[in-house]
Amino acid sequence: MVSVLKINMLGEFSITYGDKMINDQLNRSKKVWTLLEYLITFRGREISQNELIELLWPEESVDNPMNTLKTLLHRVRTLVDQLDIADSKKIIVSRGGTYAWNPSMPSVVDTEVFENLCQQALSAENDMEERIKKLLEAIEIYRGDFLPQNALDSWVVPINAYYHSLYIKVVGNALECLQQMNRNSEIIELCQKAIVIDPYEEFFHYRLIKTLVDVGKHQQALTHYKYTTDLFFNKFGITPSKELVALYKKVIKTFKSPELDLHIIREGLEEEISTDGCFYCEYEFFKSVYQLEARSAARTGQTVYVGLITLTDTAGFLPSQKLLNSQMERLRQTTIGALRRGDVVTRYSVSQYLVMLSAATFENCDAVMQRIVKTFRRGNPKSPVTIHYSLQPLIPLELRDI
């Protein structure tokens, strides 16, 4: 049986021949791997010396670049020799000042397999079983970005974008087909795998949370919502989309199934009561508490204050994302520790927390806010950030239209 070269370019770069394998994790010059990867990527054409020189040394002055390129090609051939391929010297063809990957070399390239499966799946419109089969096979082939070691190279960026876009499209199609077939467990599994491949595609998180709700796994849905919002806060400094927030509202509305035993309900409520610090919650839940307090204040006349805590750099601007992530978590812990059990805290934006204080007077609330700032500064004396705060009384419901 004749061995075939198996070339992977999605999620890693590797070439396997029989029981031998080489990959770009080996300790060799990046230019050697770049040259090999470029020749394979554009294996359908002959590539001029000038194009390869521009690829490898775009902003460098190289003495005798033609000879330097030949030396690099010799190193590529030596690298491929490790696979013990018969006539390995012929794997790169040189002709008339051009170089090319030998098209007669039997090979299977994962990008070709992936693309072909995608095309077969998307064209199988009238056969749902065949369509989902091909979609899932294509998804299995895509193990990550195209040539991730070279992700920032200008020639890699558009190719990676193409395959990544195609991946998102086939996952979306697969999820739609699975939903039509009511295969919820497979939807959950597929979303979880897709999130590993691309954790920053919100659509995957949305579909996972929605399906968890659909199958009654409300606690898992809430846990994943919290994970997703933290992820996007910390990575991109952005708040959840309207669609994700709307889904969260649906989760909390349908969280509990009907239960007729009040004793069991009370026990469940008591299990969730925290004994330390204030109550920290999602912003949407904070809004509900605020509205409840506004109604209560209209009836009882009790004064409740809302405070806004903002973190900036020393010049008053938004800090870098890395600094913001670490300092916001420290500020959260400081705020929770400084408040009482009857107070409520939520994260309002990438650099702000909202607090609801039940202290009776403005002076008491102001003292609480000052304590947060002083405690943070004392615990982080070298922190290059500044904490600002403001206070406003909660407006009772009956006074809002006056």
What distance lies between the first and last C-alpha atoms, to the nearest angstrom?
Answer: 87 Å
CATH architecture of the largest domain: Alpha Horseshoe
Helical fraction equals: 40-55%
User: Mean pLDDT, rounded to whole units?
Assistant: 87
Number of domains: 3
Order of helices and strands: EEEHEHHEEEHHHHHHHHEHEHEEHE
Would you tell me the structural class of the helices and strands?
A: alpha+beta
Supply the CATH superfamily name of the largest domain.
Tetratricopeptide repeat domain
Low-confidence stretches: none
If helices are DSSP runs of H or I spanning 4 or more residues, what is the number of helices? 14
Rg from Cα: 29 Å
What would you call the quaternary organization? Answer: single chain
Shape, principal axes of CA atoms: elongated
Tally of DSSP β-strands: 12
CATH hierarchy class name of the largest domain: Mainly Alpha
Strand content: 5-15%
Strand arrangement across the biggest beta sheet: 8-10-11-9-12
